[in-house]
């Protein structure tokens, strides 16, 4: 079947995939645009999955200072080779992650890092709230599970909506970049410092200012 250049360009703009990949996906999907986008997404995930077992021992430690020294972030983002670590594409990614941390203030990289005692405390609070609302006992644990997923998305970097594109999480961004660059990419650790931390107004102001820089 004939695939129009406009459809190929449209699919490329949406997915970031190459022209030939977009053309092949549209042909495979019989011209169905949404099905073609899904095919590319699946293929991207497959490419990223192939890198999952690789060792990411190279990368960068990046610093970001904001607000005349009132807010600072150090983050280590790993890749597999020094060559990739020196590319503009990788450095732009690391900078974006650092600015995201500055703006959104995650506390952990992933849910695996959250201490068990903190999780149980949070669950106990939710259980008490739900019981006070008169929720049936058999429903409480299911509701708590949903609330914990939201809790993770608030405190864990990988599960937060990425500040430059809130339709994807930071983890999805890293997966896309792994597929695009062809090397496993991961955030190993970070630290965030803020003068007067605990003053909510300052945190909100910093987030707004960083958001403006991110565009």
TrEMBL record:
The keyword ATP-binding does not apply. The keyword Cytoplasm applies. This is Elongation factor Ts. GO terms for molecular function: translation elongation factor activity. Belongs to the EF-Ts family. It comes from Candidatus Magasanikbacteria bacterium GW2011_GWA2_56_11. HAMAP family: EF_Ts. Keywords: Cytoplasm, Elongation factor, Protein biosynthesis. InterPro entries: EF-Ts_dimer_sf, Transl_elong_EFTs/EF1B, Transl_elong_EFTs/EF1B_dimer, Transl_elong_Ts_CS, UBA-like_sf. Pfam families: EF_TS (PF00889). GO terms for cellular component: cytoplasm. The lineage of its organism: Bacteria, Candidatus Magasanikiibacteriota. Associates with the EF-Tu.GDP complex and induces the exchange of GDP to GTP. It remains bound to the aminoacyl-tRNA.EF-Tu.GTP complex up to the GTP hydrolysis stage on the ribosome. It comes from the Bacteria. It is found in: Cytoplasm. Residues 81-84 are annotated as: Involved in Mg(2+) ion dislocation from EF-Tu. Residues 50-197 form the Translation elongation factor EFTs/EF1B dimerisation domain. SUPFAM superfamilies: Elongation factor Ts (EF-Ts), dimerisation domain (SSF54713), UBA-like (SSF46934).
